[in-house]
Amino acid sequence: MITKIILAILALVAAPLLGALITGVDRRITAWLQSRYGPPILQPIYDVLKLLGKEPMVTNTWQALCAYVYIVGAALSVVLLFTGSDLLLIFFVLTVGAVFLVMGALASPSPYSQIGGQRELLQMLAYEPLLILVFAAIAMVTGSFKVSAVFEQTRPLLYDLPLMYIVLGYALTIKLRKSPFDISASAHAHQELVRGVYTEYSGPFLAMIEIAHWYEVILVLGLCALFWSTSVVGMVVLVAVTYLAEIIVDNVTARLTWRFMLKSAVGMGLVLTLVNMLWLYAQ
Amino acid sequence: MLGNLINQGRIKSPWVVHFDCGSCNGCDIEVLACLTPIYDIERFGILNIGNPKHADVLLVTGTVNHRNKHVLKNIYDQMPGPKAVIAIGACGCSGGVFREAYNVVGGVDKVIPVDVYVPGCPARPEAIIDGVVAALEKVKTLLGMTA
Questions:
Q1: How many CB pairs (< 8 A) connect A and B?
Q2: 3-class secondary structure, A186
Q3: Where are the domains of chain A?
Q4: Which domain holds residue B112?
Q5: Is the pLDDT reported for residue B147 higher than 70?
Q6: B117 lies in a domain?
Q7: Is B84 part of any domain?
Q8: Would you say B105 and B64 are in contact if contact means Cβ atoms under 8 Å apart?
Q9: A11-40 pLDDT per residue, tens
Q10: Looking at the domain assignment, is residue B4 inside a domain?
Q11: At B94, which CATH number?
Q12: Does position B93 have pLDDT exceeding 80, yes or no?
């Protein structure tokens, strides 16, 4: 019980800070790939501090509520992951948060925000079945949807589910809105529809969304870490290699259309899952 | 303490939005040149953000005329405070060679308060970066952060 409380506090406090640092490193590596010098590693923290100090401005009060629910959803899903809870519960909590982000965007009549919100719904439509498939595959190997059951395994999940890891990587690129799937909103200088789903959030509410994004980065990398649950070094290496690949893909690909995203995500996800499941049965 | 941290963030993360208020595009190209690897303003935490609601600094190029003065005012009003305005180029500062034209209102300061003027035709990227730094110095004085 005590360890669970400590883990929960760690998830609430340390996870966003770590997420901010990872985002800072991401921006630095991106700048390096574009032969620029890049901002300091702590830049995301400066950005959020500044945004927290700005004058609050909302088009209607629903937006503020949506920003609060989004950050609570993201934080809660990280807490659930750290305390070894149910994968499906994590998924549902994450989805509730994501839906509220879209609702906040749709609560404003701005066309940029509206189209951004619709596109974010399409992105969710693309990554959610993939995540469910990955969770189901994990449950087939471990016999339980519990995160703690993964840590009772004697050999890494990656040996049994190598193709599911690719499916997870695909889903994560869509979830983190990295190029080529930065369709609903885009970070950095390559804008999409002004700022897509984020357009109408500003000041402290945008800061909350940024912090929620840090939580999501940690959640996503935590899910990757589950695939090498037997050693800490293995987890760190796997997560680092995955995120580096993610940054490189982000920089070398152009934005694709939502049709391509939906078709490729569902098509590729289903085929890879099927092959992996057959292989699992044949073993 | 949180106030100090927030002020620190304000100095280190000025996001700019650029509005072309009827410029000949000379100054606009120089503004965009600041983003290129040669000048790389992101190393100071400056981001070119396309959304006035997220921006802290408004960069305005070109003369203001009777048609676009409403647009300029609207963009300025959409920015949450604290905010700063930088007028770029001879036209943005005063109306330039067009100041006597019948359709021209004049410089940007005829419509909204301007904090820093960056002269030049067109203004060089170095001068624009200097302008943003000067605006930050002004903000520092306002916040009482001068050491």
A1: 90
A2: coil
A3: 2-282
A4: 13-143
A5: no
A6: yes
A7: yes
A8: yes
A9: 888 889 999 999 999 989 988 888 888 889
A10: no
A11: 3.40.50.12280
A12: yes
Total domains in chain B come to 1
Percent over 90 (pLDDT), chain A: 24
Answer whether A3 touches B (CB < 8 Å).
Answer: no
Angle between the N-to-C axes of helices A111-142 and A162-175, in degrees from 0 to 180, rounded to the nearest 10? 160
Q: What is the ipTM of this complex?
A: 0.86
- Stretches where chain A sits below pLDDT 50 are none
Lookup: tokens for A225: 């870490």
CB contact set of A77 (below 8 Å; sequence gap of 6+): A90, A93, A94, A97, A215, A219
Percentage, residues of chain B above pLDDT 70: 98
Whether B67 maps to a domain, the answer reads: yes
Q: How far is CA A234 from CA A172, A220, A226, A245, A274, in A?
A: 20, 16, 10, 16, 27
The residue of chain A with its CA nearest to that of B37 is A36
Residues of A in Cβ contact (< 8 Å) with B42: 27, 31, 36, 38-39, 189
Longest dimension (CA), chain A: 61
